[in-house]
Amino acid sequence: xxxxxxYRRARASFQDLAKGLSxxxxxxxxxxxxxxxxxxxxxQLTTNGGGEASESIWENSAYATRYFPLSMGIVITAAYLxxxxxxxxxxxxxxxxxxxxxxxxxxxxxxLEAGGYLIEYGLYRLADEVxxxxxxxxxxxxxxxxxxxxEVWIVVAANVAxxxxxxxxxxxxxxxxxxxxxxxxxxxxLAVEAVMSVGWAGAxxxxxxxxxxxxxxxxxxxxxxxxxxxxxxxxxxRTIDLRPQKx
Amino acid sequence: MSGIExxxxxVRYPGDVTAIDDLTLKLEGGKIYGLLGRNGxxxxxxxxxxxxxxxxxxxxxxxDGQEPFENEELTQHICLVRDSGDVVxxxxxxxxxxxxxxxxxxxxxxxxxxxxxxxxxxxxxxxxAKLSRGQKSALGITVGLASRAPLTMxxxxxxxxxxxxxxxxxxxxxxxxxxxxxxxxxxxxxxEEVGRxxxxxxxxxxxxxxxxxxxxxxxxxxxxxxxxxxxVDDFTTGMTILGEQRLGGTKSVTVYGEIDPDARAVAADWGxxxxxxxxxxxxxxxxxGDPA
Lengths: 247, 292
What we know:
Chain A is an all-alpha fold. Chain A has helices at about 5-45, 60-85, 90-125, 145-175, 175-180, 180-195, 200-205, 215-235; strands at about 55, 130.
């Protein structure tokens, strides 16, 4: 089997996935930007007098940028595996395409988040304020995009991968067993969240008095867990038979 | 040339359902095959295995001497259209569906695809979800034919299409097959309509092979005997009768079984006409049993 053929087919499959998901992602970005940046910032700035540290509004967008991509992950197998196989793509190539989709989608969210924090920081500074964060992060200031990007990228990728795993399990086994095993399917994502200990997971870990790993170690361990998760999903996807057509 | 060899293939589904039962079959490349069987006889399962939609667990399937499952060199040259649904994504448009096929199918013929869209009057900008049942089938057929895959399988691909569209499909398929020979497997229940396209017929029933033969040879396995009622009754005595019709003093009886030259001479003497039996009558006879 030529690896260049696998690469070409995986790339084509990724392009197909990217094209299919792009409209939803674009709308999501616009909606999140409008809701959190424009409305949130206006409300915050008009209710505060200025000159004090103020809570970041944009920090709350982290929930949306985690769970919307997770839902996108759920449809990867259900919507695109059948059409990929019907187009002569192997599950192996599709697995690579799915992996690339997870990474790319998380990358888009990381850039969105980093951009949002940067803009928010600038706007707060204009009002002589400094945004503060209510949950732990690897970064301390909103302008530190070089830290924000990897933090968000890793966490969101773990969420999209969780969605992909859940969607694949539901596609393969229908609803009963995957529903029973849902906590197990979420474990890889929870493990990454726990290791990274940022956002809500960081707050939980703090409440539990569990000390966070040093940043570099946390990032490396989380990347390792993410790689294992994606490799596991790829293996899993290769076992999936296409469902019969509905009458 | 996309020959297919199937050895001792068995597929069991949960609930003790045997979809394919120890099937052994060899199909040469470069022919149009009719794959016939009653509902639930295993046709779709068989084609799904050939197209690597499912993994073979018992027995073997070889296409051009290779196993298709997870074999990208091979699967890019195999196209199975099952009722159109697999080749489309909800929310996609007709244009988007063709774009995908162009991306994945190495022998994709865009001009031919556009011609098929025109023939089936498919609006390229319309969303797949807004297409009628017949239009979705036509889209599936468009993808199936314009892919020009060396092994093309169409599983009841015409569902919901009106008669003019179906006949246009048959004509185009035949014309394109002559210009671009390849292996085509058509699964259908409209045997009389599609039968003229088949070079060979494979009939399976309850997952087992019943018949694999040239269409003409198969049709010669029986005969329609037409003539004066008394002479027809005398001639067909002791034969396996598949069906009979009577109009005044003339009777037509369809019989199963080879009619030797001597018997044919007798029939001629008695003023009886013998013609090949209708494929559908043979199919019904060969697969009759409990209702599916």
